């Protein structure tokens, strides 16, 4: 396969800033700046489940980090406890919402001297960050750009079946699913799942791409359209997916059944049901959804926008992206023309 050379990046200054949560978990932030001093202030980017902060830095001509830096932002990429940069752990959305995101925001503000920041959040980074915001734990965040899902997870019928019936069955034998098993299946359960994926998914020859679709959605593929990815990105994503705990799938199953986010660990600081009281945040939300998303249906973000708009009309916004799915909103070869200008416009809009 011929791969185009990786695009030449502008010279960036990068530093890793570790932080420790109040429950004793060591996490980190990657601060990426251009050589010119940022003039817009900090923005935090929060990744989804079973990936890491680098998911925002796909090998395309211009990724979202490039676009933000070019527009004058001080970029901070959060690796929360669901990141594959760390050893696998049995995390929940509750833990990320209570411990990880508030501490990450506090760390950024302490490092920069800023009194507020903006956020771009995706998938389970989005659900858990939304939980933090609704619970009143992120008062310093003024604008939140949310992609794919936030308060109201809605999934395809096949995904509901997998969540309700297959997850409890598989959970008797393993604690994690890992799309990288397509490359390296270490034990019998992993080999059996890989065999099942290979028997049912024939959409491409990338074993991780196929495992991702089996793990997270109902499509062929589920998280992107192949036409939206360049060859290098399709190859690169082999190393960008790792272990995700079935404990998380238990929680998202409950959320899907309720039709909105619910807590599962009983922390006093978090509501049990995130729709029973108005959100304790003044942040303006910009909800994004790919119309072809086969992980979380676009109704997920439509429902959440309608909920927030009913509470505060003419404040929040909704963008439905035709020809896009779940992650190609950030990884797509044309996302810099189709999606990033809308994202930047929302970040630059005054609340």
Summary of the model, kept short:
36% of the residues lie in helices and 17% in strands. With 351 residues, the protein is of the alpha/beta class. The model has no long low-confidence stretch (mean pLDDT 96).
Name some characteristics of this structure.
12 helices, globular, eight-stranded mixed sheet, Rossmann fold, 351 residues, 10 strands, alpha/beta, 17% strand, two-stranded antiparallel ribbon
Principal-axis shape equals globular
Computed Rg: 19 Å
Query: The CATH topology of the domain at 12-155 and 260-348 is what?
Result: Rossmann fold
- The overall pLDDT average reads 96
CATH architecture classification of the domain at 12-155 and 260-348 = 3-Layer(aba) Sandwich
- The structural class is alpha/beta
| Assigned CATH superfamily of the domain at 12-155 and 260-348 | Alpha/Beta hydrolase fold, catalytic domain
N→C terminal distance: 47 Å
Highest CATH level, the class of the domain at 12-155 and 260-348: Alpha Beta
Into which percentage range does the β-strand content fall? 15-25%
Q: How many beta-strand segments? A: 10
Unreliable parts: none
Helix content: 25-40%
Oligomer: single chain
Number of helices: 12
SSE series: EEEHEHEHEHEHHHEHEHEHHH
Strand order of the largest sheet: 1-2-4-3-5-6-9-10
The main β sheet shows up as: 8 strands, mixed
Protein name: Alpha/beta hydrolase
Domain AB hydrolase-1: 42-191
Cofactor: FAD
Family: Belongs to the GMC oxidoreductase family.
